[in-house]
């Protein structure tokens, strides 16, 4: 691994300044993805700014929502009483991700900033426009079993690996950011971006901006929720495809719905049209199947991931059925 | 040695040149480095300048013993334990956070020591497999692994046991299914899983303090 300088500021502003004045600097929190990428030579920061001493771990009520500090550990959020009561979908998604050890290290902000698990991104001997802009996309004509069916471009067909982010986009979360130009807020749905012609940019974070917290507004989705994750072993694997589903039921009638998919696009994929198709419908398998058909409109497969075109709607129906019965 | 082929060059030419380079590079380095490093350099230990830039002080408590160390930032916690402290019980399996062989407790929480830089744990308390037993008396989880044959080759075992202890402490050992889910971060290629689950259930049901 390359050598690097290490600093450990205790104030957010000092951390932002330390990254701002060095183009090759990076923040490090849990490190579960960055250390991995550094060992493989995929990322080679010359300076690491350790933000673990910043006071950004609280989980607290703010107005009519919940604010989760960017450094709150994935395990702490999943076990938090307020999270389980107000946003059980988030707890389910978090516990579907990684392993207990990794959830004890990974933070909320770091989870959002995970890089793709595309094998071509990880292998420095392969072309990858995300790792090395202009070098080409190895996955496009390669082994693309894990890859996107929505929102891809001819430059990149990678998917975002986070489970937590699928729940957060479904729950209409907001991201709080702090940077050299001050603080700002970003809708969670606008945090991650599609690859387009610049797949090297995963998110709309500006250089040296720091995620300080995520806010989730109160919602009626406190009971009928489910996170359906399909993977190649029972646990501890990235999603082939996942679905976050939440229903607000009046008797058996759907008053409101939230649906999002993971493992299908360069960002957590909110299914707004399918949500609309569920409103006013009875919570039946037939209605779920109609919504799933709406959700899959525009999906396109590559050579090895055609299975996702069938797995997608099946997982949506399964997630909605389980949510309705919860 | 034969006669000096360049008699008009002073015999100590090379030495002068080296001294000059040493001094000038030291001055350049001094202009660029932070104060603590400068003080090290002022002690006329120019070789130590580079070392000071690379290494960072680190205080740790490992298995109850305090350490004051100086480490390169790129040293992982796993490598520090194995290479610097010679605590070889913690194993390096994949080194990429995919197998769990390197599981240790940091401040009582189980983590993958391969995916963490040691310097990030300044002031923290680490427990490794070597810190689990009470002298010659095995920890109940170690005894249960022996009793239930919770291993074959044994390479994953330190990580399995550290993870298993945490699993019970966290309250995630309520059923065989829950144990399987919460032990999923520890891979055993010999396939001793069913015996590992039995060992954890035994400890959980035995109600001993873990």
Description:
Chain B: This is 2Fe-2S iron-sulfur cluster-binding protein. The complex is a heterodimer of chains A (326) and B (210). With 326 residues, chain A is α+β, with helices and mostly antiparallel strands. Chain A has helices spanning 12-20, 34-39, 74-79, 81-86, 88-95, 100-103, 108-112, 119-122, 164-170, 272-278, 285-295, 307-325, and strands at 5-7, 25-28, 47-50, 59-62, 65-69, 174-179, 182-187, 210-217, 224-230, 241-250, 253-262, 269-270. Helices cover 28% and strands 21% of the residues of chain A. Chain A has a five-stranded antiparallel β-sheet with strand order 4-5-8-6-7. In chain A, helix 11 crosses helix 12. Chain B is of the alpha+beta class. Among the domains of chain B are: 55-131, Ubiquitin-like (UB roll), CATH 3.10.20; 140-206, Orthogonal Bundle (DNA polymerase, domain 1), CATH 1.10.150.120. Helix content of chain B is 41%, strand content 12%. In chain B, a hairpin with a 2-residue loop joins strand 3 (103-106) and strand 4. The chains are: A alpha+beta (326), B alpha+beta (210). Chains A and B meet through helix 2 and helix 6 of A and strand 4, helix 6 and helix 7 of B.
> What name is given to the CATH topology of the domain at 55-131 in chain B?
Ubiquitin-like (UB roll)
Q: Which class of secondary structure composition applies to the elements of chain A?
A: alpha+beta
Mean pLDDT of chain A: 98
CATH superfamily of the domain at 55-131 in chain B: Beta-grasp domain
How big is the Rg of chain B? 25 Å
Order of helix and strand elements from N to C terminus of chain B: HHHEEHEEEHHHH
Keywords (chain B): Iron, Metal-binding, Oxidoreductase
Protein name (chain B): 2Fe-2S iron-sulfur cluster-binding protein
InterPro entries (chain B): 2Fe-2S-bd (IPR002888), 2Fe-2S-bd_dom_sf (IPR036884), 2Fe-2S_ferredoxin-like_sf (IPR036010), 2Fe-2S_ferredoxin-type (IPR001041), 2Fe2S_fd_BS (IPR006058), Aldehyde_Oxdr_Iron-Sulfur (IPR052914), Beta-grasp_dom_sf (IPR012675), TAT_signal (IPR006311)
Keywords (chain A): FAD, Flavoprotein
């Amino acid at each position: 691994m390359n050598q690097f300088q290490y600093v450990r500021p205790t104030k957010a502003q000092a951390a932002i300044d330390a990254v701002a004045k060095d183009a090759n600097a990076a923040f490090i929190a849990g490190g579960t993805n960055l250390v991995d990428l550094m060992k493989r030579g995929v990322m080679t920061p010359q300076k690491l700014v350790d933000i673990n001493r910043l006071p950004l771990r609280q989980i607290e009520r703010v107005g009519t929502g919940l604010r989760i500090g960017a450094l709150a550990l994935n395990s702490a959020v999943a076990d938090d009483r307020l999270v389980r009561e107000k946003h059980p979908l988030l707890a389910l998604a978090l516990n579907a991700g990684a392993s207990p050890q990794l959830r004890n290290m990974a933070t909320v902000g770091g989870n959002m900033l995970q890089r793709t698990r595309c094998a071509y991104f990880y292998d420095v001997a392969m072309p990858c426009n995300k790792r090395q802009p202009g070098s080409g996309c190895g996955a496009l004509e390669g082994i693309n079993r894990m890859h996107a069916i929505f929102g891809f471009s001819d430059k990149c067909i990678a998917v975002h690996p986070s489970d937590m982010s699928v729940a957060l986009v479904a729950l209409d979360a907001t991201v709080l950011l702090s940077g050299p130009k001050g603080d700002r807020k970003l809708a969670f749905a606008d945090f991650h971006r599609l690859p387009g012609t610049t797949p090297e940019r995963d998110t709309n974070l500006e250089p040296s901006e720091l995620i300080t917290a995520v806010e989730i507004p109160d919602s009626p989705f406190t009971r009928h929720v489910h996170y359906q994750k399909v993977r190649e072993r029972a646990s501890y694997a990235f999603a082939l495809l996942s679905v976050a589903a939440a229903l607000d039921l009046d008797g058996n009638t759907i008053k409101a719905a939230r649906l999002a998919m993971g493992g299908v696009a360069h960002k957590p994929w909110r299914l707004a049209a399918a949500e609309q198709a569920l409103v006013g419908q009875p919570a039946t398998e037939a209605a779920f199947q109609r919504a799933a058909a709406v959700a899959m409109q525009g999906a396109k497969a590559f050579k090895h991931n055609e299975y996702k075109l069938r797995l997608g709607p099946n997982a949506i129906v399964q997630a909605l059925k389980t949510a309705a019965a919860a | 040695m034969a006669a000096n082929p360049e008699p008009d060059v002073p015999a100590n030419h090379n030495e002068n040149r080296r001294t000059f380079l040493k001094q000038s590079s030291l001055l350049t380095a001094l202009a660029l480095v932070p104060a603590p490093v400068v003080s090290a350099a002022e002690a006329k230990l120019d070789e130590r300048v580079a070392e000071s830039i690379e290494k960072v002080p680190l205080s740790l408590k490992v298995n109850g013993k305090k350490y004051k160390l100086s480490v390169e930032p790129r040293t992982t916690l796993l490598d520090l334990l194995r290479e610097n402290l010679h605590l070889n019980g913690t194993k390096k399996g994949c080194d990429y956070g995919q197998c769990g062989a390197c599981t240790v407790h940091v401040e009582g929480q189980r983590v993958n020591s391969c995916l963490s830089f040691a310097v990030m744990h300044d002031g923290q308390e680490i427990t490794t497999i070597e810190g689990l037993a009470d002298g010659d008396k095995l920890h109940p989880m170690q005894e249960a692994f022996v009793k239930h044959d919770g291993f074959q080759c044994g390479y994953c075992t330190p990580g399995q046991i550290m993870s298993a202890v945490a699993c019970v402490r966290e309250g995630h050992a309520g059923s065989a299914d829950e144990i399987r889910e919460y032990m999923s971060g520890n891979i055993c290629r010999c396939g001793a899983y069913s015996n590992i689950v039995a060992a954890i259930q035994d400890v959980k049901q035995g109600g001993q303090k873990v």
